[in-house]
Specification:
The complex is a heterodimer of chains A (133) and B (757). Chain A has a single domain, classed as Rossmann fold (3-Layer(aba) Sandwich), CATH 3.40.50.2300. In chain A, 46% of the residues lie in helices and 18% in strands. Chain A has 6 helices and 5 strands; from the N terminus they run E-H-E-H-E-H-E-H-E-H-H. In chain A, strands 2-1-3-4-5 form a 5-stranded parallel sheet, with helices on both faces. Chain B folds into 4 domains: 211 residues, Four Helix Bundle (Hemerythrin (Met), subunit A) (Up-down Bundle); 104 residues, PAS domain (Beta-Lactamase); 107 residues, PAS domain (Beta-Lactamase, 2-Layer Sandwich), CATH 3.30.450; 172 residues, Histidine kinase-like ATPase, C-terminal domain (Heat Shock Protein 90, 2-Layer Sandwich), CATH 3.30.565.10. In chain B, the strands form 4 sheets. Chain B has a 5-stranded antiparallel sheet with strand order 2-1-5-4-3, with helices on both faces. A 5-stranded antiparallel sheet of chain B has the order 7-6-10-9-8. Classes of the chains: A alpha/beta (133), B alpha+beta (757). Chains A and B meet through helix 1, helix 4, strand 5 and helix 5 of A and helix 15 of B.
């Protein structure tokens, strides 16, 4: 599974990519801003994007909106990653086209499985996803 | 006399009239009897005379017949013959007449019978003689004449005798009757005179007696009335039941009632709490009731003869004198107030009620102690001032409105809140103070009506939030609560408490922001710390030495605990604000049980505790995640406090009222009775050391309670110290059983609040 992590916090990126890469065996790409993330996703379309909601330059919702406008990334499933956890906000995110929300802090051991289950539940064939890595 | 006393006056009067009347009646009867007798006597006399004259006439006729016959026999003259025939025809007629006169007198009838025989014999002889004469048998005639003559003489003598006998009787009667009449007349005269005298005597006697008995008794009554007036004892009651006795009786009742009334009046005056006194023209006490001691400390005797103004506080004397002077001219009662100096030097406030009696040339006064009332009045005034002060300075705006919403009064805070002056607000419609006035017309009755309805619905006896509009056109949030009350004039009014909550809203907003920020700021580093530690602990970064692994585990465990604490604090915060997000769907109890078991399985196993899950088949209407959170919390607690090897039983069952009740039972140490009601409060643990020994934040049960209550359920505990506890909660049952539970995609670690949809 090819995961693109878009987060302006380097520590998070490092930990999350370790968890996914070392523990989950996934292929991980990291972007430090929404802008960089969009660029990377366009160049190398990932299976799923883990998108931080709160970023300084361009926040998660704007990034998502941009991703949806670009044909290559328009269909890529996006999972928000946030420290906030309010249902109304989740609803808003869902309207923007996000697949799910994973609240921080997550369980490092289960992060990879969690993402896969979300994709599977949303109808993305896991085999296909898994075969991509 | 005794007998007469029983009679009524009317009866006595009746007797007075009746007795002479009876006498009159007797006189009348006697007189008429006497008159009748006299009449009979006169008639008898008249008849006697008639009989005598008739008898004499008869005798004479008979004699004449003989004479006529003698003449005829000698002369043969028809003159004698005619005379004779006439007499012969006359005799039976006279006899018949005499018979009628005699009537039923037997003796005379007998005489008459004989008379008839004699006359018929005589006439027979005379007839024979006449026949002989007519036949010219003179010799015979002569012979017969001689013989006849003798016979006739004899008969005539007999007749004479009989008639004599008859008339003698009558004469006797005739001569007797005048004497008898005179006698009876005298008797009647005597009787009449005696009767009249007796009648008059009796009448006078009765009159005298009745008058005497009536006037004596009346004088008793009169005397009683004088006695009553003089206050003397009344004479003994009159006996009998006549009008005077009744009058006497009524008089006595009246006297008793008067005595009772005066006794009561006296008792009232003697026992009155108010001082009652009379003051003469010189201003001196002439009568004082005993209340003076209780009220002023002076016995009545001490006050008698003293000047009234001596007991008045010197400062009040001029006013008092003025008031007293006004009483003398007044026609009605005059009230005035002053202060009386008591014997012990203290003073009492007194309300005087004075009445001037021109007849007695005295002032009658009632002095009512109003010290208490004065104190109360002052206290009321002070209290009013205090309340007024509070109202004027309170930080809550007060607006009194009518039912229709017209503003009647406001307090200063309302003025400052709405940046307006009181006089500008009074009489206006309350709607003009609200932001609604921007969108609706205050002058439209329908808009007003619907506004008032909203206002009452949201704020009557509860607190409602509104947006108000100040005079300078700014909106500001307020909380309003309306209370209905009845104003002194009896009209219904509403008091609106208006609290400007702008600042509080701002604080709330900031707090929310702060909590959100802190949560974000803490979670971000914790995410990295936790991730790093876990990666280290699982050896993803290469195997660690045993010692290092141990401390990394400690760090990881405590990080997880810290994350739990932050999550709990956020939950509590949201619960308190009533803003815990919940998505209520129909969930199978079994699924809640399963997910909870997964979450605490490892924890239970580590503590050597067995989990006995017995879910029932129903579905509940709830937020599955939150319910799992509750159940996990309760099971974790149960595990924590269970001895090794013991079981924790989790079961569910439907109970009446449309609820599902879930039980979590442990065999732990139980909960002290005194602690039970604090158990569900924040940061409460049975033993202070529990937090360290058993872990946990002390917020778990408070959160459980909040969540259950937001579901409309209840939570509680049954426990016996030393034997274990059973925590239970009730959650509404799913209404529609056909509805499929929404599969919530949720990793087992719900305690970490990972959420998905």
């Amino acid at each position: 599974m090819k995961v693109l992590i878009i987060d302006d916090e380097e520590d998070f990126r490092t930990v999350a990519s370790s968890c996914l890469g070392l523990l989950g065996g996934d292929t991980v790409a990291e972007a430090c801003s929404g802008k960089e993330g969009i660029e990377m996703a366009r160049n190398d379309v990932p299976d799923v994007i883990l998108l931080d909601l709160c970023m300084t330059d361009m926040d998660g919702t704007k990034t998502l909106a941009s991703l949806r406008e670009i044909p290559e990334t328009a269909e890529v499933p996006v999972i928000f990653c946030t420290t906030k956890g309010m249902f109304p906000e989740f609803e808003d995110m869902k309207k923007l086209g996000a697949l799910a929300v994973i609240t921080k802090p997550f369980d490092p051991l289960k992060l990879s499985d969690q993402i896969k289950e979300i994709l599977k539940a949303a109808g993305f064939a896991c085999d296909q996803v898994l075969s991509a890595d | 006399m005794r007998l007469n006393l029983q009679l009524k006056i009317s009866h006595k009067g009746f007797i007075l009239v009746l007795v002479p009347l009876v006498f009159e009646l007797v006189f009348l009867i006697v007189l008429s009897v006497l008159l009748q007798q006299a009449e009979v006597e006169v008639q008898r006399q008249v008849r006697s005379k008639a009989i005598i004259s008739q008898a004499n006439a008869l005798s004479k006729l008979f004699y004449d017949a003989g004479v006529a016959m003698g003449g005829y026999s000698i002369t043969k003259s028809p003159l004698f013959s005619d005379r004779y025939d006439k007499i012969v025809r006359q005799i039976p007629l006279d006899l018949q007449e005499l018979k009628g006169l005699v009537g039923d007198n037997d003796k005379q009838q007998l005489i008459l019978g004989r008379l008839q025989t004699i006359t018929s014999d005589g006439l027979k002889i005379l007839g024979e003689a006449k026949a002989a004469i007519d036949d010219n048998r003179v010799d015979v005639a002569q012979f017969r004449a001689r013989h006849m003559y003798k016979q006739i003489r004899q008969l005539a003598d007999q007749l004479q005798d009989e008639l004599k006998g008859l008339t003698e009787d009558e004469r006797k009667i005739e001569s007797e009757s005048p004497e008898q009449q005179n006698r009876s007349r005298a008797a009647v005269k005597m009787f009449l005179v005696f009767g009249v005298v007796l009648n008059i005597g009796i009448a006078f006697l009765l009159l005298y007696y009745f008058l005497r008995s009536i006037s004596t008794r009346l004088s008793t009554v009169t005397d009683n009335s004088f006695r009553l007036a003089r206050g003397q004892k009344l004479r003994p009651p009159l006996s009998g039941n006549d009008e005077i006795a009744q009058l006497d009786d009524a008089f006595r009742s009246m006297a008793e009632a008067l005595a009772e009334a005066s006794r009561k009046e006296r008792a009232v005056i003697e026992n009155a709490a108010d001082v009652i006194c009379s003051i003469d023209m010189d201003g001196k006490f002439v009568a004082v009731n005993p209340a003076s001691y209780e009220s002023w400390g002076f016995y009545p005797d001490e006050l008698m003869g003293r000047r009234f103004i001596e007991v008045i506080m010197p400062e009040d004397v001029p006013d008092t004198i003025r008031a007293v002077r006004s009483v003398r001219g007044a026609t009605s009662k005059v009230n005035f107030e002053n202060r009386v100096k008591k014997r012990d030097g203290s003073m009492v406030n007194v309300l005087w009620s004075a009445d001037w009696s021109e007849k007695d040339r005295a002032l009658f006064c009632v002095a009512h102690d109003i010290t208490q009332r004065k104190l109360v009045e002052e206290a009321i005034k002070a209290n009013e001032a205090r309340i007024r002060n509070i109202i004027n300075n309170m930080m809550v705006g007060l607006i009194i409105i009518t039912r229709d919403g017209l503003i009647e009064s406001i307090n200063p805070r309302t003025e400052s809140m709405f940046s307006t002056r009181s006089h500008e607000m009074l009489g206006r419609h309350v709607m003009s103070l609200f932001a609604d006035a921007r969108h609706f017309s205050v002058s439209d009755p329908n808009d007003r009506q619907s506004f008032m309805e909203t206002l009452f619905t949201k704020a009557l006896n509860r607190i409602g939030e509104f947006d108000c509009l100040s005079a300078n056109g700014e909106d500001f949030p307020v909380e309003i609560s309306l209370t209905e009350f009845v104003s002194p004039d009896g009209a219904v009014r509403f008091m609106a408490n208006v609290l400007d909550v702008s600042e509080r809203k701002e604080v709330e907003r900031m707090k929310k922001e702060f909590v959100s920020t802190v949560s974000h700021e803490l979670r971000t580093p914790l995410t990295s710390i936790r991730g790093s530690l876990t990666l280290l602990a699982v050896g993803a970064m290469g195997a660690l030495p045993e010692q290092a692994k141990k401390v990394v585990n400690i760090a990881e465990r405590n990080t997880i605990r810290l994350i739990g604490l932050i999550n709990d604090i956020l939950d509590v915060e949201k619960l308190e604000a009533g803003k815990l997000d919940m998505e209520l769907v129909d969930v199978a109890v079994a699924s809640i049980f399963e997910r909870s078991e997964q979450a605490v399985n490892t924890f239970a196993a580590n503590n050597g505790v067995l989990l006995d899950m017995k879910p029932s088949g129903e579905m509940v209407h709830a937020d599955g995640d939150r319910l799992v959170q509750v159940l996990v919390n309760l099971i974790s607690n149960a595990v924590k406090f269970s001895p090794k090897g013991a079981a924790v039983t989790v079961s569910s069952a439907e109970i009446p009222g449309g609820f599902i009740e879930v039980h979590v039972t442990d065999r732990g140490r139980g909960i002290p009775e005194s602690f039970k009601n604090r158990l569900f409060q924040r940061f409460q643990q049975v033993e202070a050391s529990d937090a360290k020994k058993k872990g946990g934040t002390g917020l778990g049960l408070a959160i459980c309670k909040g969540i259950v209550e937001q579901h409309g359920g209840t939570i509680g505990v049954e426990s016996e110290e030393g034997k274990g506890s059973t925590f239970w909660f009730r959650i509404p049952k799913a209404q529609n059983l056909l509805k499929q539970p929404v599969q919530v995609l949720e990793p087992a670690a719900s305690m970490q609040s990972n959420q998905a949809f």
